[in-house]
Amino acid sequence: EERLTSLVDVLIDEPDDNESAMALEAIIDEGADPTKVAEAFEQAAGLVDSSTGGGVETKKALLYRAGRIFGAAAKNKERAERVYVELVRLDPSDDIAQNALEEARKALGKYAEIVESLLSRSEDAPPGEERARIFAEIGRLCATELQDPDQGIHAYVRALCEVPSAREYASEIEALAERKPALYGEVLEAVTEGIHAESLSPVERNTLLAYAGRWYDQKMGRADMALAAFQQILANDPAHDEANEGLIAIYRKAQQWPELVGVLGARAAASGASPRSRDLRAEAADILENKLNNTDRARELYAQVVAEDPAHERAGDGMARIAERTGDFKQLVAILEKRAESLRGRERVEVLVKAAEICEDRLDDLAEASRRFEAVLAIEPHELQALKGLDRIYSRTGKYHELLDNLERQVSIAATPRQKITLLERMAALHDEEFLDHGKAAACLEQILALDPDNDGSLTALPRHYRALAEWDKLEKLYERHATVTVDDARRLELMLSRARLLAENIGSPERAMRAYEKALALEPEHAGALEALARLRELSGDANAALSAIEALAGKGTTPEAKAEQWIRAARLLEGRGDRDGAIERYKLALDANPRDQAASAALRQAYATRGDAASVVTLIDKEMQHAEGNLAKARLQAELARLYRERMHDNVKAETTAKIAFELDPTNPDALLVLGDIAFEGQR
User: Fold this and answer.
1) Distances (CA, A) of 521 to 479, 503, 509, 515
2) Which one, of 612, 546, 602, 614, lies nearest residue 576 by Cα?
3) CA distance 266 to 105
4) pTM score, two decimals?
5) Is the pLDDT of residue 550 over 70?
6) DSSP code of 146?
7) CA-CA distance, 477 to 192, in Å (whole number)?
8) How far is CA 283 from CA 259, 270, 317, in A?
9) Contact predicate 172/195, CB 8 Å
10) Of 50-64, 139-153, 400-414, which one has max mean pLDDT?
11) Among 105, 499, 524, 605, who pairs with 110 as Cys (CB 3.0-4.6 Å)?
12) pLDDT value at residue 392
């Protein structure tokens, strides 16, 4: 305390002694009362003569120390405020003192006094950014601290008029006025007054006019006033973006189409050869086309844009519409073709497909349409619309070979089983009706059943093809499968009887046929046809059993391979006579087991397999007999027989041709080999 008193006395005696002032302020850190220290500085300042320049600075320095200690160390904002008020009175131009006073008053919540002080400062501040900052601070305090948004808006408007480029001031105005739209009238009145300020540059004046135009239009609904503001801007700056966009929006909303076209044209001209210029001209052309019915002028503008940018979508679409509406489809195709040249990928494919469709539908030029669809497929082999286009053309022109190839490609890219089935049904019909090819028709229907095992259409259509191909085993399995899945009892009975007849008459298996008839009678016990057929089969089977047993006994007792084979062949022929091909085949096999070189047994077994439609077993037999064949003529005969089997039964022209060539090399005069080779060459147009 004594040291504090001593330092205070020294300061009072010599107020301008900086070292004494620093020592006194430092004693606060040693525990001295900050209020007493601050009061000492304030007392010392009161003793300084401020009539001289040096005296003013000394007094300010002492007051700064006092204010700082009152505010920070002593936590006495009121005393700090009084000190800063004295500082500002002493030197009104001291910004630091002004800011310190504002901070002290903010801490005390004296926002009204701050606003009054800021207003006073604004009168002396130079125009521009400094004055704008003062008004912006006033606006912030009014809006947030004093809860007076009306005055806040007015302050922000004055700030904006000082610095029109400060977008944040406009944003604050819009945010505050959003809750009180009626204030926009006062805002615009102040802005209009600010526009006439001599301190503004032409750019700044145009910026204020742009705000005025936008607010008149969007906030006040005064399109006339907005129009006047934008036009005033354009009189000085024809390329002004916001003014042009404002005019365009007003004319569009008011549906003043001629004026809008004029503004768009002027805007485009000012934008040079830029993408924006092309967009504006395309929009003007669209208005001429659809609103003013000026097709010629619209076509002219669209053409200008497309000439500069062939890929311009809006202009290209516009030219296409006009060409289509006027029936100039050749021109439309040329437009699309030109547009496609500048495109890549999917967009190019879509444009080329559209051009091809116009050739097909509008110009009825199927050859040109076909060429264009094929060009699309050269770019994108899996383009479905191009494939469908060629599908239509091939169907109309009867190009069935090409149509089949096309349908196969569609099947390969079809997304769902249902789509694949529909295409395969068409392929089956073509093979059947146009080419009379039962084998390929059957193959298509088999693919359908692989996708949908219960497909009734394929189950119903396949039997006719299997009969034409003598594919008895496949037909028997198909009847059984169809009978299993059908829900119609009458249909099931019909299928079961068809299977039984097939087993008896074509496959030659009376035992299996009798079992099939028995199953049919379980479903319909009184069916006369089934009863009669079953009785006949039982009668035929019963008479020959004894003879068969005797022959088989002789075969078992044969002393040589030839003798055994002879008896087994007799047994097989007996069974064939009874219609039992299954039994006959087993006996022919036993004959070959006894004597593998027996040509009669081999030939008879091959014939039995062929009659039953079992081509694969015939191939196996021929391969075995080939191993024992002697001489080129015998080998040629077997190879030629195999070639005919591949072609006529198995429908495999590749293997048929290869095998026939082998036979021809062994015997150039073999008629079967020559016939197969000739037929294949004829079909291949070779």
Assistant:
1) 16, 16, 18, 10
2) 612
3) 56
4) 0.49
5) no
6) S
7) 96
8) 13, 15, 12
9) no
10) 400-414
11) 105
12) 95
Q: Which two tokens stand for residue 269?
A: 């001209």
Contact 289, 295 (CB under 8 A): yes
* Axis crossing angle, helix 581-594 with helix 599-612, rounded to the nearest 10: 150
Which amino acid is located at 244 in the chain?
N
Rounded CA separation 177/219 (Å): 10
In whole angstroms, give the CA distance from residue 650 to residue 395: 29
Amino acid at 361: D
How far is Cα 289 from Cα 389, in angstroms, rounded to an integer? 32
The amino acid that residue 684 corresponds to is G
568: nearest Cα among 558, 559, 578, 577:
558
Instruction: State the DSSP string of 165-189.
Output: T-HHHHHHHHHHHTT-GGGHHHHHH
How far is the C-alpha of 154 from the C-alpha of 307, rounded, in Å?
Answer: 53
pLDDT digits (tens, 9 = 90+) for 340-399: 877 788 888 988 999 999 999 888 899 999 999 999 999 999 999 999 999 999 999 999
Neighbours of 668 (CB within 10 A): 10
**Separation between Cα atoms, residue 337 and residue 332, nearest integer Å:** 9
Q: What is the CA angle 566-611-496, rounded to 5?
A: 120
Residue 420 three-state SS? helix
Give the relative orientation of helices 472-485 and 456-469 as an angle to the nearest 10 degrees: 160
Q: Is 554:567 a contact under the CB 8 Å cutoff?
A: yes
- Alpha-carbon gap, residue 109 to 281, rounded angstroms: 59
Confidence of residue 476 (pLDDT cuts 50, 70, 90): very high
DSSP 488-536: -HHHHHHHHHHHHHHIIIII--HHHHHHHHHHHHHH-TT-HHHHHHHHH
| Mutual angle of helices 417-433 and 438-451, in 10-degree steps | 170
Place of tokens 């037999």: 621
